[in-house]
Specification:
This protein is α+β, with helices and mostly antiparallel strands. It has 20 helices and 35 strands.
């Protein structure tokens, strides 16, 4: 007798102990496989995910054919969720909406009536307000379901049946494309032109070993529903189709409209695929307001049913191609559409296919559908011919048949025995009405039987002959090409294939109007720019308690470099400085300069120049000024410094300078060859001058032959000629000698 305390099937079931990691791993693997096979990846044969397949199948059962009246979308969603798709209704409606959007699907599978969203990104109306029905494309995908063309499986509760895959006479996978993210894998298939796909399929039937190079002659590139211009190189497209992975650069289509008097506008008429127009306009407008695209003055959306995006340049002298190149670089007017041809093959195994493999898988599916439909038709013919044979026997013995039916209680076994009929034949005769028996005509029966026999012979030949099968499949593909090819409404290629223009996007400097400014930075770090070159000795106002620090002339196209005590250089755009009418803004709001660090110098960058940077400890080196330019607010570290010896000096080397003069806090002066200093992009540097007390006070480069000079009080200048200067000449890193009489008390040359 079992103990009541022990777990048994009667009191709750057996309990099995299992490691948590193993249990989680097994369950996660189950979830991953479910996501891959039943949600995210399309089937290579019909190009559909389960949710799309269930929507189309449910609409077919609701008789929502292309010529039938529209029905509420909520009706469809309810049937799909209730019978086939055990997930949320919103996911089903989202899938239905996407199949109806002509800007999302190259060949929409659903004909929608009502608000199904738009290219601006506006949401569709709720499912209770919209109506839908199938399109001719869907009808081609569903054609053959009644002819045992595919297998059916029970639905999630076993009360209904749904198809494993649809017959699909239309190459939907590549024609409409697909996107999905599974667990550990994803798929991204752009749409293509159905007419081009049919041409490639017909060629593949004739030459099963055709290479990608030949197939791309028929399918040169994707064909997007929103048009645009594809500028991906042919070699890259070929490699993408060969491997099943790659990408395509797609641009908006535009043209120039002249307004007279040297003015013009740029009109964008076609958008890149899956780009929301409203967000694109918002992005371009932000570039204009933030002055990140100075050559563009305004953007307007004048779209109605057609796309019309108006771009207004700041000047008629601006090259339109250069302006568009700048927009392509900074906005979604140019996008990259990925290709990852990851699908479920006929064995429900996920794998990445090439273009040729995907096309061949479709042909193999069509062959399987053809054979199944042919065998189903043969079965139907056999059944009908059996019945016709019974009818002929009944016609030839009509009086006796009527007599048996009238007089016998169980006429069926008697008829079967007397006329050698099968059960089916006897049942068919008994089920006929008397009026039909009277109308039986032997010639009509034999004519129908002969036609069926001839049809059966053709089907037998078709089932056993691969060549005949290929001809039948080719005929089906030609019919599909006739319906959806380039000569059909909306079948022409929409996406233009072109080479990328050889116009480079203009640099930011080229897009900025060059104007003179005067840069003003106060002692407390408030910076501004006054228009024009103001006299440097003119009176300038500052905040109370503040005063002048840096004042110099520049151009709006200049880059300003700020050298800080932490050894970092920070870059500021001269065109982005606040106006001179105000007191400016704190420079620390424009760059990430720590509060504990101070400014060493601020100047306009001079391309090609070189300079000496040094710390308070007297260590430094020569650096190319271009190496100090930074791309971010955090600046660029150039001089490595110690906390007790911050960066202290920056001096630009003039052309022809061959020596360096250093002055210390101890009033000692040292002159040594400039060649003794290494040129570096970053580092701590070498020792310039040795100090017992204090540190480096000032330095400068000079031509030794010209001597050394510095300013003295009263506007006078002290000059030390070459012959006298030799007294302070020595080796780098030596202490030097006491400065000449008249050297400034602050130990600085200026």
């Amino acid at each position: 007798m079992a103990n009541d305390d022990e777990p048994t099937p009667e009191n709750g079931g057996l309990i099995e102990e299992e490691a948590l990691t193993r249990a989680l791993g097994r369950r996660y693997l189950t979830y991953a496989l479910s996501t891959i096979m039943h949600r995210a990846l399309p089937d290579v044969r019909d190009g559909l995910k389960p949710v799309h397949r269930r929507i189309l199948f449910a609409m077919r059962l609701l008789k929502m054919d292309p010529n039938a009246p529209f029905k509420k979308s909520a009706r469809v969603v309810g049937d799909v969720v209730g019978k086939y798709h055990p997930h949320g209704e919103q996911s089903v409606y989202d899938a239905l909406v996407r199949m109806a959007q002509d800007f999302s699907a190259r060949y929409p599978l659903i004909d929608g009536q009502g608000n199904f969203g738009n290219i601006d990104g506006d949401n569709p109306a709720a499912m209770r307000y919209t109506e839908c029905r199938l399109t001719n494309t869907s009808a081609s995908i569903l054609m053959g379901l009644d002819d045992d063309a595919v297998d059916f499986r029970p639905n999630y509760d076993g009360q209904e049946e749904e198809p494993d895959v649809l017959p699909s006479a239309f190459p939907n996978l590549l024609a409409n494309g697909a996107n999905g993210i599974a667990v550990g894998m994803a798929t991204s298939i752009p749409p293509h032109n159905a007419g081009e796909l049919c041409d490639a399929l017909l060629h593949l039937l004739k030459a099963p070993n055709a290479g990608i190079e030949k197939l791309t002659e028929f399918v040169p590139a994707p064909d997007f529903p929103t048009g645009g211009i594809l500028i991906e190189p042919a070699a890259s497209i070929l490699d993408a189709y060969k491997t099943g992975r790659g990408g395509f650069r797609l641009r908006a289509k535009w043209h120039r409209e002249d307004l007279g008097r040297g003015k013009y506008e740029i009109i964008v008429t076609e958008m890149p695929y899956q780009v929301q127009k409203s967000k694109l306009v918002e992005r371009i407008a932000s570039l204009v307001t933030e002055k990140r695209l100075p050559i563009l003055a305004d953007v307007r959306d004048e779209s109605a049913e057609d796309i019309r995006l108006v771009l207004e340049p700041r000047s008629g002298n601006i090259d339109d191609a250069a302006l568009m190149e700048a927009l392509f670089k900074q906005t979604d007017l140019e996008v990259r559409i990925p290709l990852n041809l990851n699908v479920l093959d006929s064995k429900r195994t996920p794998r990445v296919m090439s273009l040729g493999e995907a096309l061949q898988a479709f042909l193999d599916h069509r062959r399987e559908v053809l054979l199944r439909r042919s065998r189903h038709r043969i079965s139907k013919i056999d059944t009908r011919m059996e019945v016709l044979d019974g009818y002929i026997v009944a016609y030839l013995n009509l009086d006796r048949v009527i007599e048996i039916i009238r007089e016998e209680d169980e006429p069926k076994p008697i008829m079967m025995a007397e006329f050698n009929l099968t059960d089916g034949q006897a049942e068919a005769i008994l089920n006929m009405r008397l009026r039909s028996l009277r109308k039986l005509e032997e010639m009509e029966l034999r004519t129908e039987r002969d036609k069926l026999a001839a049809e059966r012979a053709e089907l037998d030949t078709l089932v056993g002959d691969e060549g005949a099968q290929s001809k039948a499949i080719a005929a089906e593909i030609r019919e599909t090409r006739k319906k959806f090819g380039v000569d059909s409404p909306g079948g022409a290629r929409r996406t233009e294939i072109a080479d990328a223009p050889k116009v480079d996007a203009p640099s930011m400097e080229a897009m900025i109007d060059k104007e003179p400014i005067t840069v003003i930075c106060s002692e407390n770090g408030w910076i501004r720019a006054m228009k024009g070159h103001v006299a440097l000795d003119s009176e300038i106002k500052y905040k109370d308690g503040d005063g002048p620090r840096f004042l110099f002339h520049a151009q709006t196209t200049d880059k300003l470099l700020l050298f800080a005590t932490n050894g970092r250089f920070y870059t500021l755009g001269a065109d982005k400085l606040p106006g001179g009418r105000s007191m400016g803004e704190p420079v620390r709001l424009m760059i990430d300069l720590p509060n504990e660090e101070g400014m060493v110098t601020l100047f306009a960058h001079q391309p090609g120049a070189k300079a000496i940077v040094a710390s308070k400890s007297g260590r430094g080196f020569v650096m190319p000024e271009a190496d100090a330019l930074a791309q971010t607010r955090t600046g660029k570290q150039v001089l490595n410094v110690d906390p007790l010896a911050p960066a202290a000096l920056f001096y630009r080397i003039e052309e022809g300078d061959d020596s360096v003069a250093c002055a210390g806090d101890n009033r000692k002066l040292l002159v040594f060859p400039l060649a003794d200093l290494p040129e570096m992009s970053r580092g701590k540097g070498v020792l310039l001058q040795r100090y017992k007390d204090g540190g480096l006070a000032d330095l400068r480069s000079l031509k030794f032959a010209d001597g050394l000079s510095w300013e003295m009080g009263g506007g006078k200048t002290r000059y030390v000629p070459e012959a006298e200067l030799a007294e302070w000449q020595g080796k780098r890193a030596s202490a030097g000698r006491m400065a000449p009489r008249g050297f400034p008390r602050d130990n600085r040359f200026i």
